[in-house]
Amino acid sequence: MKLAKRGVVTSTVKKIAKDEKVNAERVRNGVAKGKIVVMEKGEEVCGIGAGLRTKVNANVGTSTDFARVEEEVRKVKAAVEAGTDTVMDLSTGGNLEAVLKRIIRASRVPVGTVPVYSAFVNSFKKGELPREEDILKAVERHMQLGVNFVTVHAAMRRKGLDLTKSRIMRIVSRGGCMLAAWMMKNEKENPLYTNFDYLLELAEDRDVILSLGDALRPGCLSDSTDRAQMHELITQGELVKRAHERNVSVICEGPGHVPIEKIEANIMLQKKICSGAPFYVLGPLVTDIAVGYDHISSAIGGAIAAKAGADFLCVVTPSEHVALPRVEDVVDGVVAMRIAAHAADIAKRMDNEVDLEMSKARAELDWRKQFDCAIYDKKAREYRKKRGSRSRACSMCGDYCAIKIMKELEGVSAHSKDEQYRPGKH
Ligand code: SF4
């Protein structure tokens, strides 16, 4: 941000502008104003924010029940192959630092983490709560290990925590609940809030993006857009200003569970209160009863949110609320959220070139080209291979393929207007 404010167009900004087919000066200006954040990992660059393609993040990570590093590495690779823009390691099981190192190595795309997990999980193993300095050290350690962005739930304050008392589901954020326990036991303000200047110093030194977590995000439709959520949002706005003054790029995290009619208002409020900082929404899920299919519920919410201005969508998998996802669940979640992001981008930027190519390929029954245009072709290729058709059509309509019939009719009418059409004859 410091370089962008000075008018320097860095190589990262140039690469992002080229990838996104936008003017590099526009990206620089967005970074300078805090409306765009940029990340780089090896050859990969990722820009998130105003005027750029909507990005998608996939969560991976061990739990206390399943602490299998190899499986998490497979999830990272599958999520990247399915097109996720970033990956977050949310591990809470096993040796957390060893897992994070493996995930950073395995991921081609930028990596984010929630460092408070390390501080709390390591202390819980000893039967105690972490000290304030343990929490800050965990943030520093993750930055040292080379992550691109860290979630810090710095905007949850004592007052906001009190406001959750009237909720159906008080706190559903894992990091938020750990910090809430610390605040309640110690009867103190959130250490990430009171030490925010120190976090900015760390982020500035290491050029790491701070993602302001939403510890008080609603966990059900009934709690959506309530006073606790708004209290945290207002504090996020204050922290965004302090970060921008210090030249630290920040993202704001947001809900959660939100009924469709409130999504647009949530995005407008965040953009206004948080000075246009990129908005990272966790879904949002538009119904509480899609258990087993929450990737669909969140993709519906994600598409509406992105159309209204959200910049970064967090993947929700089909196993959300029930179990740690498997590799295939992560892939289904990534693809669902990429569809949501792309659908919103079409509406926002009329970026529908590939959709037009797909339509032309469909009209020609050109299967190879259709798979090339697909957002993720693996499943479609499998269907075609296993349940294809004897003819150029597919087995959905077989001989009665409307596209094939209309093409043949065009051929017939070009030769003889009177010739009767019969399926299969042509
Ligand atoms: S068979 Fe039916 S579903 Fe398949 S390509 Fe033809 S019209 Fe489309």
TrEMBL record:
Coiled coil: none annotated. GO terms for biological process: thiamine biosynthetic process. Its cofactor is [4Fe-4S] cluster. This is Phosphomethylpyrimidine synthase. Its EC number is 4.1.99.17. It comes from the Archaea. It is an enzyme of class 4 (lyase). GO terms for molecular function: 4 iron, 4 sulfur cluster binding; metal ion binding; phosphomethylpyrimidine synthase activity. Keywords: 4Fe-4S, Iron, Iron-sulfur, Lyase, Metal-binding, S-adenosyl-L-methionine, Zinc.
